[in-house]
Amino acid sequence: MRNMYFLTILVLFQVISNIQCLSSPIRQFTTYRNATELMKNVADLWWTVDDVDKEITFELHVKTTGWVALGIASTEENSRDADMGIGWINANGQFYFEDRFAHGFVLPVKDSTTQDWFGLQGREENDWTAIQFKRALDTHDTMDFPIRSGINVLLFAYGPVDPNPDITYHEDRRSTHRLSLWKS
């Protein structure tokens, strides 16, 4: 009985430790195996890797009512040659999501080969935008980078307004992260 009590306390401690680093005040669409805070009090990311279907599902929460983006890059230096998913909720509450690719320091263009990032759902609540999306771990698309075991370079950015007709420059609303997406 004592061992069971200790185990319960240990599990609760691990769950609380994972939760307290996150800042989003809104609930996730589902539960995930992993989470991280991308930008303190501004952006949180949850994800689960599905080894059977060879895909990954992300959920991104950002303190904005504009567009939000997550990308996979070949290098850590910048968004040069980055595979990105960009989403937003319009004024009528409709969710939009696009597969894009950044060629250097210019506006990411819509992926001209195949659409491999798939928007699942999104909402705005309390001045936060939440989007859920997925993609294959390796799409075999020349405008995508494979998501591998080990360290991946993730890019995050957001804008203060919805696209009209396209996304605005993110200015300093961005960050780069080196993450192992197979944490647990």
TrEMBL record:
Lineage, uppermost ranks = Eukaryota, Metazoa, Spiralia, Gnathifera, Rotifera
Q: Name one GO cellular component term.
A: secretory granule membrane
Keyword annotations for this protein, in alphabetical order, are:
Signal
Question: What is this protein's record name?
Answer: DOMON domain-containing protein
Enumerate the InterPro entries for this protein. DBH-like, DOH_DOMON, DOMON_domain
GO BP term, example? octopamine biosynthetic process
Signal sequence interval, chain numbering: 1-21
One GO term in the molecular function aspect is: dopamine beta-monooxygenase activity
Annotated DOMON domain residues: 41-159
